Amino acid sequence: MSVLDLARPEIRAMQPYSSARMEASGGEVLLNANESAWAPVGDDGLGCNRYPEPQPAALVEALATLYGVRREQLLVGRGSDEAIDLLVRAFCRAGRDAVLIQPPTFGMYAVCARVQDAGIVEVPLAADATLDVDAVLAALTPAVKLVFVCTPNNPTGQPVPRTELERLVQALAGRALLVVDEAYVEFADEGSVADLIDRYDNLAVLRTLSKAWALAGVRIGSLLASAGVIALLRRIMAPYPLPLPSVDAALLALSGWGQANAREHLAVVRAERTRMCEALRWLRNVREVLPSQANFLAVRFDDAAGAYQRLLAAGIVVRDVRRYLNLGDALRITIGTPAENERVLAVLQETSP
């Protein structure tokens, strides 16, 4: 059974929109897309008066090389959020199909499901914030078409071992597509599972340039999956998802200099994460610092609301995650520069009872 058999039949059968840029390339006088013949002020040769490539060849090549997949196994779009939305729309029939998530986790999986009127099956993380594969499989129903797993998980920071992910994808064969969200994998000790895509056609991997690559404002994310899944999603993707300035910024970040810069900052974040974890654990107002392999720490406080307000009064904004399941006493603190981290510790130390 192909994983495409799980997708909506009407999506598999539909005739996708064919843009002017897709239908014709080359030429010197471009009069096929109703674009302006004049570049805008300040364009500096970028060509923003023309529609961009639907999947820019240079960027696709750079990302495929970075992630160790073939070009046809990669779809680039507007952050991971777009890929999540496309997956739900392609695989879940409104009012009939469902996704499975493990709260507390990234909220966009549920949001995209609700927009599509798809069901949501929840299998909470274990008490130690780890994924229970057996519980996930026990909760699986024929309606579930997508199983989302975030590793390292947001907002807890815990990774899922590769062995558990492979056990899960094997058990889901012919039943559901496993979507592994690796937004924070660059900060983790264990690497990506993208190399398993050739072995399992029901595996998809989400990657982003927003975190480790410092391009949150550029909005570039990738879906890595079998060529069939990529081709399916291109049927329903917007014809021109990537603005030229974003593509330009991404290519610079992925250059030799850009990669060296990213590696330098990754090393700082990992070192600061260890330092912050140890320092926070000594504060009397802190109940627990959850183990994390992301670029943040989930911290349990005796008085999380008070800690949040004191940090805010000092000009420091952290994420209040008390509304998340089993995190009613927690704040999520992103690892900043060493100086920014010192400010956080100073405020919490001064106010620790």
Automatic annotation (TrEMBL):
InterPro entries: Aminotrans_II_pyridoxalP_BS, Aminotransferase_I/II_large, HisP_aminotrans, PyrdxlP-dep_Trfase, PyrdxlP-dep_Trfase_major, PyrdxlP-dep_Trfase_small. It catalyses: L-histidinol phosphate + 2-oxoglutarate = 3-(imidazol-4-yl)-2-oxopropyl phosphate + L-glutamate. One of its GO terms (biological process) is L-histidine biosynthetic process. It is an enzyme of class 2 (transferase). Pathway: Amino-acid biosynthesis; L-histidine biosynthesis; L-histidine from 5-phospho-alpha-D-ribose 1-diphosphate: step 7/9. One of its GO terms (molecular function) is pyridoxal phosphate binding. Its cofactor is pyridoxal 5'-phosphate. The modification N6-(pyridoxal phosphate)lysine is found at K211. Residues 45-347 form the Aminotransferase class I/classII large domain. Belongs to the class-II pyridoxal-phosphate-dependent aminotransferase family. Histidinol-phosphate aminotransferase subfamily. This is Histidinol-phosphate aminotransferase. It comes from Rhodanobacter denitrificans.
